[in-house]
Amino acid sequence: MEKGEAAPPAAEEKGGEEDDFGYRLFPDRNKKPQSFLVRSLFTFHSRCQVMLRMTLETNPYAQLLLEAMKQSGCTVFNDRHFSCENCDGCVSGGFDSATSQIVLCQNNIQHQSHMNRVVAHELIHAFDHCRAHVDWFKNVKHLACSEIRAANLSGDCTLINEIARFKFGLKGHHQTCVRDRAIRSILAVRKVSKETAEKAVDEVFDACFNDLEPFGRIPHSKADARRAYKDFQNRDRYNANL
Predict the structure, then answer these.
(1) Catalytic residue (choose from 5, 122, 147, 198)
(2) Which UniProt keywords apply (predicted)?
């Protein structure tokens, strides 16, 4: 989740330990779905849907991830795999692995650039869920790895975003940002100590930070993401010509 982007629990795992897995942050997950007419009357929901559509149609981070998931056999459909909902005030989104659904916090996402970043972050979790056997609930290292990748590749730690947070640094600042945000994400959705979260992140950091799929590079800007998307589209053509 953005400001703690991690998977809420599988439905069958909730029980009396739902707080261990972060479902408390997504109260609408437990409510009966409202009709489209009722939902459309609420400004937050309508705005969320418009911004989501804009992201999916124009954002190169999202476009590359959607194409990569399709090639991996996990085609994403707007109406099926995205849900605009009200969330706890501290989060902006999450990936629900039980339903393979991305939750977008309509009450907390205020502008298009924020939506772009949240969708990209959560799509990286969805991509990891598609391509690997991720144990989101029992293996904190698996969760840590996906959080590292999401912070590294989604644009969370671009220079402009860090400046907006009043965080400045020189050598190694990007890595520091990725590590810190991964730790915060784990702590937001798992009842583990800070030491446990830090240990999990540090143990897998090098391998997961250097796993750049499907981008092939760290996209530090939209221009980088566009180049990565173009390279991704050309992979099969280049292979076919060998």
Answers:
(1) 122
(2) Hydrolase, Metal-binding, Metalloprotease, Protease
